[in-house]
Amino acid sequence: MATGFTDFDVSAVILRQYSNSPGIVNMANLLWQAVSPSEFIDDFYTNIWDVSTANTYGLDIWGKIVNLSRTMEYSDTNLYFGFREAQLEVTTTTDPQPFNTYPFYDPTMSATGRVVLSDDYYRKAIMMKAMMNITDCTVPKMNAMLMYMFSSSGNAWVQHDGPRAMSYRFNFTPNTTDLAIIQNGNILPRPAGCVVSYIFETT
């Protein structure tokens, strides 16, 4: 990053008659090295300001800016086979899943808990939250967001299911972090007045 502070022109601050004095020039250079903000500005930009390179502390700051916690709750008790009449009025990830997606309910296999996002996941979640705030919720835009978030896990896409209805579809078995992000409610965009379903098309 070019800060504008890296190159120091001694002649700009020393009178001409003293510009050839090694002692004065050396003193001016040493003073500039002591007070120059260039290193601080570069570190600030890399570790905090730029989300793509921000460290753990910088990402925590961005998380507060976009109001997204690094610690998220998840529940996989919804990932079982069920019938349409059991669905809630507003479809959520707690609704039963259709045929050829998940097995019958097994209470011994259900789990709930919390997961702390790694820097890589948290970085993507922060960017997703920022994109959600400005997206026009068209299918191509949401598909691009999904592939940005879940490309390392598998394919994810949006399907238009009719008037005021859409579904998020995932062809991979989500890990606990993926599940926490999907269930968060503040990361994946939800068009106003649209019933949203979450379908996991795994074998």
Structure explained in plain terms:
The N terminus is likely disordered. 35% of the residues lie in helices and 14% in strands. α3 runs parallel beside α4. It is of the alpha+beta class and 203 residues long. The strands form 2 sheets. Strands 3-4-5 form a 3-stranded mixed β-sheet, covered by helices on one side.
How is the topology of this model organized?
Layout: H1 22-35, H2 38-49, H3 56-65, E1 71-75, E2 112-116, H4 119-134, H5 139-150, E3 156-162, E4 165-170, H6 176-183, E5 195-200
Parallel strand pairs: 4-5
Antiparallel strand pairs: 1-2, 3-4
Helix pairs in contact: 3-4
Q: Give the percentage of residues in beta strands.
A: 5-15%
- The residue fraction in helices comes out at 25-40%
Main β-sheet, spatial strand arrangement: 3-4-5
Shape: elongated
Could you give the distance between the termini? 47 Å
Rg is 26 Å
Compute the number of helices: 6
Order of helices and strands: HHHEEHHEEHE
Major β-sheet annotation = 3 strands, mixed
The count of β-strands is 5
The average pLDDT is 79
- Unreliable residue stretches: 1-5, 85-92
Structural class: alpha+beta
Brief rundown of the structure:
The chain has 203 residues and is of the alpha+beta class.
Features of this protein?
three-stranded mixed sheet; single chain; 6 helices; alpha+beta; 35% helix; two-stranded antiparallel sheet; 5 strands; 203 residues; 14% strand; disordered N terminus
